[in-house]
Design brief:
2 domains, alpha/beta, Alkaline Phosphatase, subunit A, two-stranded antiparallel sheet, 16 strands, globular
Length: about 475
Amino acid sequence: MKKHFLLTLALIVAASVSVFGQQAKYVFYFIGDGMGVNQVNATETYRAELEGRIGITPLLFAQFPFATMATTYSANSGVTDSAASGTALASGKKTNNNVVGLEADLKTPTKSIAVMAKEKGMRVGIATSVTIDHATPSSFYAHSASRYNAFVIEQQLIEAGFDYYAGSDFSTPVNRRAPEEGTIYEQAEKGGYTIARGYEDYQKKAASAKKMIMIQTEEGSKRDRGSLSYAIDREEGDLTLAEITRAGIDFLSKDLSKGFFFMVEGGKIDQACHANDAATTIAEIEDLDEAIKEAYEFYKKHPDETLIVVTADHETGCFTLGNGEYKLNLQALQYQRMSVSKLSSKLSELRKSTDNKVTWEMIQKTLQENFGLFDPIKLDEKQEARIRQVYEENYANNGEATFSVSLYQKDEKLATVAKEILNEIAQIGWVSGAHSNGYVPVFSIGAGAEKFSHRTDNAEIPMKIADAAGLR
């Protein structure tokens, strides 16, 4: 394993060194929302523990030959939100929290590297695992003093006229103030876009489409239009970030002579971190790595002209590896078979199916099957007592559910406590359910990758990409 890793790394370094001085014709820009240094480290350490050893089993993107770290503060706060950080990563301009595509004066529009690429004649794609009008993707095409002006931002997506957009769906497809304008789907089609729902639908429509918007199936959007399913919860037929990336590469490659710029966001890493859900966070980072593998396959065919940059907009949760004892037990997370959100839903279903007559044995069985608690993970008396107390308060004698609320989720208290205990057993911790000022990683390979060899700031990253691609 070690020899294989070193050989792979040597080949990657050799390939990258060979393209020094070359201009990037094909640019991939991956952004892991909420993905701090420790989130990446935890994923690689967890993978090694599953192999029965101490150390790391590296992700593909973490083996890229150039690696550094970036600061993320916004114009008005030491702790950024995704709108301000997205704007910095898109345009090189610091702005205030909650602001998309405007400078800190809230008046001056920024110009993103996606727009620069389009002006140069390159094909452009913007994709994410959350809604296409979410803060990070919208920073590349929209200008709004509030990231929450969803319908206005969606209209600006059409006006920007990029070649390929993809995500879970639109968050607000109907303008309630002016429904006569038509849905955003209707407006997009008038603007020359073909809308594909799911990967199979994309394959049917791609050849004849001039511009493409790819979203999940109607069934997927009915379940949750706000994002794709968590990787840990994925079912057959669910749209994946890797499929979105593969389709984007295919569509943008219709005319390779033009080159392309393609931004892909792993947006659900952040949601898992807001919920302090470690196992789900790790699965989301591995899922982002699968999407990056699609880009890496393209890179291997065009090594002299391709640049891949992987970074994050901010860290979420102040995630810590170690909670006091000098050891880790991340392998315990393998027994968590679903997100905390899905466990919460399962507990709610249990209430309904039993007419709210849930026994302690039912709770034990549910936690054992889905989180590994009780068996194979043994609980001490205090841990079992914590779960039993929540059961007595929320379930015994037809009790009512109480909930824990994070930014994107509302989970039954019992699911939250189960997660907290599993985190303790894994020897990890979370300081908050919000963003932090922590450094984020930057990994790169290909033409111009050497520009990312020193500590940087998020606002410097797009300018370095622009230089590598000759966009300014």
